[in-house]
Specification:
Mean pLDDT: 88
Number of domains: 2
Oligomer: single chain
CATH superfamily of the largest domain: DD-peptidase/beta-lactamase superfamily
Structural class: alpha+beta
CATH architecture of the largest domain: 3-Layer(aba) Sandwich
Strand content: 15-25%
Radius of gyration: 34 Å
CATH topology of the largest domain: Beta-lactamase
Distance between the termini: 81 Å
Helix content: 25-40%
CATH class of the largest domain: Alpha Beta
Length: 307
């Protein structure tokens, strides 16, 4: 019995001592906290020589660039005419097929971007603001490739004088007008990228309307099967389909296409802040075949950096 009483007494003494120590420890920590951070107790600082984790930069995104050997981009089978040109907007250098300076194709609807821009620039220079109805018609000319609207503003701006201004203002060297017929304007691939640069740099539409024109060209709609009428034609295909996804939002497009007795005359034009690309094709098969050529050239010019 005495041994049990002694054990109980010892246990009680230990418990009492611990109860006395806890408040003391709490008080010490509180006192330290009142004077500053408790170093090396709660959040100890890492040793100075400890390796730090450095955030790695994101890998470079795919981009378009002129090929080291342009001749490697061959004419697809089934084409009676094929040419392309790529303009680096940072350097002004033009690279392209062997016939890119001399070969020509009818521009078709590709020239509508200048018709719209030319009208808007001239209105601005005259101190006039186009009405909402006019802006709607110019929008349809671009996004639906509306032929009636193109003809209307081509005539309002002086018909042949429109193409003459295009040649002079954009510095074109191998472009010829077809009297009173905008779609039959003959142009080389190199001139086509100069024309695209002329639109992108604000020469065609002027400083006030260039942002509107480039943005509207990003909203071209309809595919190759959407050739409903002369007022509603689908033109969203070709280069835009071959671009890496990261380049699509900043790229404006305007294609041109018409079927003749010798096949489809097709032109693809894309304007990006870093470059301008044009592909010209005459092909017997169908519009989709020509669109595939434009897409293929774009893919061949795409550089995907190693990760």
């Amino acid at each position: 019995m005495r041994l049990r009483l002694a054990a109980v007494a010892c246990l009680a003494a230990v418990v009492a001592a611990s109860l006395l120590l806890v408040p003391a420890a709490r008080g010490e920590l509180a006192a330290l906290g009142a004077h500053g951070p408790v170093k090396n107790l709660i959040n100890p600082s890492p040793p100075k020589d400890q390796a730090q984790v450095v955030a790695q930069p994101a890998p470079p995104l795919p981009r378009l660039a002129a090929p080291a050997n342009p001749a490697l981009i061959k004419a697809p089978s089934g084409t009676s005419f094929f040419g392309w040109a790529f303009l680096d907007r940072a350097t002004g250098t033009i690279t392209g097929s062997a016939n890119s300076a001399t070969g020509t194709n009818s521009t078709e609807s590709m020239v509508k971007a200048f018709i719209a821009g030319d009208y808007l620039r001239m209105q601005s220079e005259a101190g006039k603001t186009p009405s909402d109805a006019t802006m709607n018609e110019l929008t349809l000319m671009i996004i639906d490739s509306n032929d009636n609207m193109a003809e209307k503003y081509y005539e309002l701006d002086g018909a042949n004088a429109v193409i003459q201004r295009l040649i002079k203002m954009c510095g074109l060297t191998n472009t010829t007008l077809f009297p009173y017929w905008w779609s039959k304007t003959q142009m080389s691939p190199q001139d086509a990228v100069r024309y695209g640069k002329c639109v992108g740099d604000g020469v065609a539409a002027g400083p006030k309307w260039t942002p509107w024109l480039l943005d509207t060209m990003k909203h071209v709609r309809g595919g190759v099967a959407d050739q409903i009428s002369v007022t509603q034609q689908g033109g969203h295909w070709g280069i835009i389909d071959g671009l890496p996804a990261n380049l699509v939002p900043d790229t404006s497009i305007k294609n041109g296409w018409t079927v003749y007795s010798d096949g489809w005359h097709v032109n693809c034009l894309a304007i990006n802040p870093a470059w301008v690309l044009n592909v010209m094709v005459r092909i017997k098969s169908n519009l989709q075949g020509a669109a595939n050529v434009c897409k293929s050239v774009t893919q061949q010019l795409t550089i995907t950096p190693d990760i």
